[in-house]
Amino acid sequence: MDLRSYSAAELFDWLTEKEDFLLLDVRNNVEFGRFKVEGPYPINMVNVPYMEFIEFEEESVAKVPRADKVRIVCAKEGSAKYVGEILVKNGFGDVAYLESGIKTWGNYLAPVRVEAANGYELHQFRRPGKASCSYTLVSGKEMMVFDPAKNIAAYQMFAQERGCAVTKTFETHRQADYISGSPMLNRATGAEIMAPETDFAEAAFRYTPVRDGQVYTFAAGGPKVKVLHTPGHTPGSTSYLIDDQYLVSGDTVFIVSIGRPDLGGMSEEWSRLLFRTMTEIIVPLDESITILPGHYIDWAEANDQLIFAQTIGKIKAGNSRIYGIREEKEFFAFINENTRPQPEEYAKIRDINAGLAEVDEEQLDILDLGKNECAASAHPPPSPSS
Predict the structure, then answer these.
(1) Which of these, 9, 193, 310, 369, could form a disulfide with 207 (CB 3.0-4.6 Å)?
(2) pTM of structure
(3) pLDDT digits (tens, 9 = 90+) for 248-258
């Protein structure tokens, strides 16, 4: 059988549909350890670096289990293709390599419908390579996007399929872990950027400040989008309440843990903000409101439809160690115990997301690649109850 390629979309389908295949990652051990393909179910995966195939071909081939289907991933495509040719030569049958390398997996967005009622559609765009989520809200001929990633073509195609235009992008905060797609969508579609002024005061691009209590609607009616200022992860962190039922919480509330307040270098000050947000805004919310988080830690947080969504009541119950804290000092101690040093690239990403720095496309991909580290959790969490 001839060597062929496969796409990130195909890989996601195989992972979510429990296809039986071997995933061979031929990047070096450091890159593999930093960031690897993850899915909702166990993956049969092995790491044999490309350089080993060059230097020790026979020994390297012997390290690859004889699976019926072998899918290879590398940094940019070429190495995976090279290794694939070696495997085919050595009698492996169904072998394929990931098109354009790991960055296509890192950028891939997989939409899933959260709600379709009351004249609107709400979708969650899961980004498995970043363990992050963005959202689209469609009503009539308009589409709003919340915390878009830089793969703006996915949102544009989604809007085109529904015969609508992207009119607004909402930022929950100035992101540090990934490149925001809002400025790109603004340039491509004219969509108005909506963002909290506290985080974007120095931004080099035009945006509309959102303020606590403001309500946004669509031209033809549709659901209301209410602004809730929820500072702590950043001073400007803002959540958006959709139709009084769904709260797009950014990095403030996660299904497991809570957003870390130390990324701006003012851990104690921002911890106070986050503690007040938690006790005065989040805890009093109607417990039936569904949280739509900006990130997840593990696929175990997804429901049986592979959607990352949970009611605030169940989130409080599942994170009682956090939501049971009653004193600021105790909360700050928890934060100190459960945060790690932030990745060095986060400061650069924050500047890019305010339009204060520019890099080329290749550097954007490098900065944007890898799983987020935005939750206040130092260790893998237990699986939450559904």
Answers:
(1) 193
(2) 0.94
(3) 999 999 999 99
